[in-house]
Structure formats: C-alpha cells, structure tokens
Amino acid sequence: MRRQDGIWNRLDWVLIAVFFILVILGWLNIYAVVYDAEQEQNIFSFDLNSGKQLIWIAGSLVIIIAIMILDYKFFDSFAYYIYAIVLVLLVLVLIVGTEIAGNQSWFVFGPVRLQPSEFAKFATALAVAKYFSSNNVRLDQFKGQIKSSLFVLVPMGLIIMQGDAGTALVFISFILVYYREGLPSFYVITGLSAAIIFILTLLVDQMYLTIGVIVLATIIIVINNKRLKNIGITILVAVLVIGVIQSVDYVISDVLKPHQQNRLKALVNPDADPLGYGWNVTQSKIAIGSGGTFGKGFLEGTQTKFDFVPEQSTDFIFCTIGEEHGWAGSFVLIILFLVLMVRIIVVAERQKSNFARIYGYAVAGIFFFHFGINIGMTIGLFPVAGIPLPFFSYGGSSLWSFTILLFVLIKLDAHRMQVLTR
Amino acid sequence: MIENRKYIIQILIIVVGIVFLVKLFSIQVLDSRYKLAAENNVINKVVQYPYRGLILDRNNKIIVHNTPVYDIMVVPKEVEVQDTTAFCNLLDITEEEFQSKIQKAKEYSYIKQSLFYPQLSNEEFAKIQTRLVEYQGFYPVARTVRKYPEPILANGLGYIGEVSKRKLERDTTNYYKQGDFIGISGIEAAYEEELRGKRGVKYKLVNVRGIEKGSFNDGKFDTLSVPGNNLVSTIDLELQKYAEYLMDDKVGSIVAIEPSTGEILAFVNSPSYDPNLLAGRNYSKNFGELNKDTLKPLFNRPIMAQYRPGSVFKLVQSLIALQEGVIVPSTRIVCNRGIINCHGSHTKEDLHGAIKYSCNPYFYQTFKRIIQQDKVEGMNKDARVGLTTWNNYLSDFGFGRKLGIDIPNENTGLVPGPTYYDYYYQKDHWNFYTIYSLSIGEGELLTTPLQVANFASILANRGFYIRPHMVKGIDTPDSYYKLEYDRQDTGIDSVHFTTVVDAMGEIVDGTARVARVKDIQIAGKTGTVQNKNSFDHSAFMAFAPKDNPQIAISVYVENAGWGGGVAAAITGLLIEKYIKGEVASNRAWVENYVMTKAYLNNL
Questions:
Q1: What is the per-residue pLDDT across A256-265, written as a single tens digit (0 to 9) for each?
Q2: Which residues have a Cβ under 8 Å from the Cβ of A34 and sit 6 or more positions away?
Q3: Count of CB atoms within 10 A of residue B534's CB?
Q4: Which domains does chain B have, with CATH numbers?
Q5: What ipTM does the predicted assembly reach?
Q6: Which residue of A has its CA nearest to B10?
Q7: Partner residue opposite B28 with nearest CB, options A293, A342, A368
Q8: Which of B51, B398, B506, B539 could covalently link to B527 via disulfide, CB atoms 3.0 to 4.6 Å apart?
Q9: Hey, are the CB atoms on B110 and A379 less than 8 Å from each other?
Q10: b/e code B51-70 from CB counts within 10 Å (16+ = b)
Q11: Start-to-end C-alpha separation, chain B
C-alpha cells in the first residue's frame, strides 16, 4: 500500500476536467439566455441568473472539498441513514412543502429554495449500492427482485405524489443498475416491448393493432404447433399484449393528467396544434433548427432571447446551445456528455468494492436519463418532461445534486485500492 | 454473460448520443424550414403606408384628401375578453362574427397582429376608444382613407380599392402587396404612380409577446415612407358643384373646357354618387348597390356615352366644305324637302342662314359636294375618295377616335369610313346615296359628349385644340411642374371659322334664347338627338364669349326634349356662372325651369 500518496494523485482527472468544462459552458450559456443587448449587463451581476448560478457553482466547490475531506467509508457506512433522512424529507415536503409550478416538492427558507427530490437520487443510489453490496441479493429470484426494487419504488412513489412525474421518471434509470447486477433480460425486454406497444397504440388505431396481434399469434401457432406448452404461452402473450393495447385509452385519459396527455400528443404529432400543446416542442425545434451548422454566435440567439422557447433557463436550456452554436456546438456538447457517461462506467467497472461499482452504475444511469430525456424532448424525440440537463440548467438544487453524485464516485474511486475485497 | 452487460450499457448510451446527433443534423443542417420559421417568429415587418397625394381644383381648393381611420388589430395569444357580449356590442358585431374573426386571426398567426375590424371612422373610434383598452389583445392602428369634402366629381376622380389578385399577378414592378390600395378608375387610376407615394418598411425584432426589441440589423433595411404627390386638377370646384346641382334628377352629362388650354373645367355625369360611398369599409356593399342601379351611376357618360351628334354636325360639314372649296359662305341652296325633311319656314338660304335655321337639305347638298368631287371615275369609286377625305377631317376634329383624355375608359365614338361600308355593302357597292344621312349628323355616326365639347373648343380657338385633360400639374414636395398636352390643328383655315361662328352667335338670339346671358356673347348650336321610341335627348354645344373665349361646353340631357330647351338653359347658366361668378337674380327663372321638370319620368 502506498497510503502516503496524496489523494491529489489518485483522482480521476478525466471526470473532473469534463465536469469543469460542462459547468463553465453551462454558466456562459445561462448568461446567453438572460443577455439583453439593450441593457448594460454584467455576467457576474447577482441580479442575473448567471450571477446567481455563480453562487451555486461556488457552493458546489465547497461541497466538492467537503466530499474530499470526508472519510471515504462515510458513504458506505451512512448510506441507509442518508436514505432514511431523504425519505423523511420527501414525506415532510408533502406536508409542509411549498407548491411551485404545480409541484409540491419545495422547501422554502427565505430566499433559498430546496428540492429534496433532487437529493433523493443520490440517496437512493447509495442505498441501492449498500443493499446489493451487503446482502447476497439474488436478482434472478422473484423475492430478491421485489425486495431490492422497493428501494427505488418508495422514493419514486413519494415524488409522484408531489406531482413531479419528470423526476420520478429518472428513477427508472436504476433498471440499468439492476440489469448490470443480474436482473434477467426478460424484464428489460418485457418493459421495452410494453413501451413500444404503448407508443404504437398512440400512432395506430387500436382496432388494427388488436387484429394484427391476433393474426400474428395465429401464424405463430400454425407454424409452431408442435408443443401444447408453446401454444399456451403464445396465447397468453397475445392476450397480455391486447390487454396493454386496450388499456392505453384508460391510462391516457384516467391515469395521466391533461398536461401529460398533451405532451404525449405533442410527441406523436406536434403539428396538430403548434400554437397550443405543440408550442413547446415546435418552438424548441425552431430555435435549435435555426442555429444551422455553426449557429448564430454567442449571445446572438433570437428565439431563446425573445422568450419564444419556454423554460429556457432550465428545462429547455439546450435550445440556446442549438441556436447559438449550431450543430457543431450540439456535437461538442453531446460528445462531452458521452465521454462523461462512458468514463463513469469505466470508473465503476474498475472498482474493487461492489458498493462503489453499483453506486457508479447508478450515477451513470441517472446522468443518462437526464441527458436522454432532456435533449430528447427539446428535439421532439421524447415527451416534454420537466427535468434538467446536468450542469447546464439553471438552478442550485440540480447543480449540487449532480456534483454530489459525481464527486462521491470520484472520491470512492480515489480510494479504490484501499478497499478490502470481501 | 453478466460481464457483457457493461458493454451493452455503454453501447446503449453511445447509440442514444448518435441518434441525437443524427436528429440534430437533420433539423439544423438539412432542414431549412426552421430557419424561416425563426425569422417569421422574430422579425415583424411593419409597413408604413404613405399618404396618398391630394387632388386640388384649379384654384387649389381641396377636392380629395385623406382622413384617418382605425383598423382594430388583434393578437390572438393576448386576447382576454371576459364579457364577449359587451365587446361585441362595442363594435356592433354578433358573437358568431366575433368567433369567426378570432379564428381567422389565429389561422394567420397566433402571436402576430392581424386585422380584426377594419376602418372605424374618427367619430366611431372616439366613442369606443376608452372602452377598448379594457380588452387585452386588441390594438387600434391608424391608416388613412380618401375623403371628399364635397360629394362631387365622383366619375372623374374614380376610386381606390384593394388591389385585386389579377393585378397583383400582372404587377411586374412588384410594387403592390396584398391589402394595398390602388386607383381603380378615373384620376385615381390614371395618376396612380404619382398619387401612391412610396411605401416604407420597418423591420422590428419582437419577442414572443410581440413587444418590440429594437430594429433588425440596426435599421439597415428600413425605409421611410414617401407621401404621394399632389395633383392640381383643371376642375373648377364651384362650377363643378353648380353643374352637378343643375343636373340633379336628370340623366346626361356636361363637359366644359377652357379652349385655350384644353383644361376641363367641369366634368359631370348624371346620375352620379357621393364618392365617400366608395371610400371606407362599406366599399363593397355600396359598390354592389351602385352597380345594380338601373340609372347606371358608375357609367362615365362624358367619355363613355355615345350619341348621334345631330345638327351639331352641320357645323363640321360647313367647315369641311369651306376648306374643300365646294361651297363659299354666299352659296345658296334651295331647301328641297323631297329627299330629306326640314323644319321652319325658309326657302333658299346661304351658309349663315342654313346654320341658323339648321337647314337639312342645305347640308345634304353640301355633304354631296364633299363626297362627290369627281376626282375619279365612277360614282362608287368617287364616293370612296370623298369619304376618305371627309374621314381625315373628322379625325383631325377628334371624332371617331379617342381624344386621349388623361383618364381611362374613353370611348371612340363612331365615324364610318370606306372599310365600314365595304363590310356592310361589299367593296364599291356603296356611294353617296347610301351614306347621305351622315350629312346631318345622323346615320351610323356616334360622338361622346367630350368630343362635342372638344369640337366647341376647336370652334372657339378657330382651328385647333389642346388635348383635353383633368390634371394640369403635379405638386411634389420640392417643386411644381406643369404637365404638357399636345396641340392638334384641324387644318382648316381660321377664316372659315369666322363664318360658322358668326352664324352660331345668332342661334342664341333665335332658337336657343333661353341660353342668353347679358353682356356675354355666346356662340352655340343645338343638337337634338332623335330617339325612335322615346323622348329626344336635349343637347347643346356652345362657347363664350364669342371673341376671346373662356369656356367651351357641351351638355346632354337624355329624354329631355329638343336642344334649345333644357340643355341650352343649363349651358347659359354655366357660362354665366363661370364668367361672371354667379347667376344674375333676374335669371332665376331659367334655373327654376331647369330644376322643376321631372325628366326622369320620360325614361
């Protein structure tokens, strides 16, 4: 052991470099959104979002230092406590929280607003990692599947109760962790199939789909009629699929809220009502599309500047990049994120402790879902869901939560050689 | 197996990234739709409509000016109307109209202004102005429409209207855009390019709420609107007003010309209409009604109506015959009523007497001498030569062709020539006896009131005319320039005019006594247009004073009896009004005579 080596030399500088590049680009980009050529503005002014974001960035530096100073075993040891505290906060926020933009998910202390659901991702990642690493969880068995999934489903349920479906959606990202840790492919395939069928139902008449499934099942039975068991399974699957198809109407009109229904409609056909529910997606695509190959230049965007794109500082921040920096800028940004996520997986895979590896996958999954859903919705590939783009969207809670997620992994990674393998 | 999953997950992440890059490439690089949509989003093109030029009378009194009207514009995104009924009452529209107007605006643009309710007058707008601000999303925008202080000269001025699709397509200069106004008839159409001015455009950046965020590219592409030029017309507003008053309840026309310049002093169509009817938002409704009116107020009689000239033509025959040398002033011809009838008691007059008594046989013979000059062998061939000569003279007088007045839709009238008769009778199968009714201005001949007034002008000038026109100068912001109109000589020696004009002078003392004005010598000629199945048209042509003439005039009143009656009376009144400034009180009976007869019953 070369314990005398400073932590400085054991840090993963690739992740840290990508982190700082993204944070600085994000900060400049927030300035671009609020920039108004007619007013004298200072990027550091605390009246502007860019100035405020700078405070959040400074805060995250403090957090980084704190994480580095803490003993690396703290996260393993206190994983359940942190998880428990966050769960309590999630319940509390339902009772005494403040409703902002339809979501009962904020604590307000004077000028500071805190969103516990942002930290629930981190806490859940720790708890899941802890659970998998300290118990011999058999993910190929039904009992293990149920037990372990509760760690994710409980906070997810509480967040749905707050009305924040977007953040809750991110918890689905834990399926990557479960998949990596041995969840049978059957679940993933079933889930994906259900999602595909669901989307197909939005595009094609239910009647035709039902007929199509029956015809397909009949063909399979006729070709493959050797064994009774196969016929039984085929019929069962067909009935299930038809059930999903027939339930779509119910899900859409009774389970989803009207604005969520509209977001689905906007995804399928944004041109049907470009001024109504299609507005966000249409304007977002106009802003990004108008950027062309090389963009209009820093601070030169018109669509984002003149408020055509809604929520442009937060959820639709990617529009500013697309408009001002064009495809070239979008390319750089996406490549940076891909480097970040793939690097996280590489780092996770080199961990000696299961805890650190599983935690790393959780981080990768969370970043992946934020990245995929956020950019996907701005270019019309995913329904509009209010979740931030890591390091780019304006806001302290999200910046801090992503910083914590990432740097706890960096911290664990720095100490990977000190772990006693069990 | 499980170990492979780390690769599957990494591949999944990279695939999503690639999908994004491909999709971004398609919307950012390949698809140009979004760039256009972005420009439409942020660049608001504000058209600055120029002020259309004014039209002034010859004494710089305003005939046409502009008045502000208010278009109510709507931005659908901002509309907030709690009480639709109250709002509808404000503009006097139904709720269905309200909904359909909003729907139409939405279809155009959700965030840009479009027309909601057009052209509220100043008074109407004043009434609702304070209430309108209570409703969000509605904005008044001022523009101007034509306004006529006096409801006169409608057919001469013409009107303006929205440019039609067909005109837009044919507009090679690309000046006009949909929604622009363009002169459609009369002076408005003829002088469109002077009057219209130049449209200005401002490109403004707007945010999502339509709020301006400065000019596009620092106003590099902005242009200022340039007001149209003012026109100085030849019309005498007072004379025009009086002439229209006299033509009240009559069908017909008046054209008065200043002989020395060709300037049209009065240009009356009757019945006419208030030109204000065709300015403003009721344009189409009013136009429809005027168009359906059986008395045809839109038919521009002074230049479009064609009448047989009748006795007026005897003056033309006289002049041609004198010039051709086939008669001299002292030539006497027996009033032989065998072939062609006559009126009054006279037997054998010289030219002076023949004009004075309007002797038909005299001009029958005169015309025969013009046509049959024995220049070539064979009667039919000779008639062709004679008629050709005669045609040439008539063309010099401005008959049978457009005079070239400066407003559109002028008719030519009809002067039949050899080819005309060839068509009906075959070549050389006609001669003088086929065409003799031309001698007294009957037969196929047709003239417009303008041509007859112009002929009066020729007589006044003793041999020439200046192309008649309604606009004499253009007043630009920097300068005034006078329009030049060409002079046309008839080729008839002025000495011959003396004979004819002298005889005309006596007509007012004889058959057209009603036209007589104290201290003003009027040279005139009656021209009764005979109609087969209804009352004759009363026509009179004159100029005055006989020496040093100031006004030449032709008056047509349809179905109002003989020329020495109402038409002569109107001519006298107008001459008096123009030269003396007002009609003497002892001639009130003439005005009374003109105004009390119900000629419309004769139609």
A1: 777 777 777 7
A2: A41, A48, A49, A50, A313
A3: 10
A4: 45-77+90-233 (3.90.1310.10)
A5: 0.88
A6: A342
A7: A293
A8: B539
A9: no
A10: bbbbbbbbeeeebbbbeebb
A11: 108
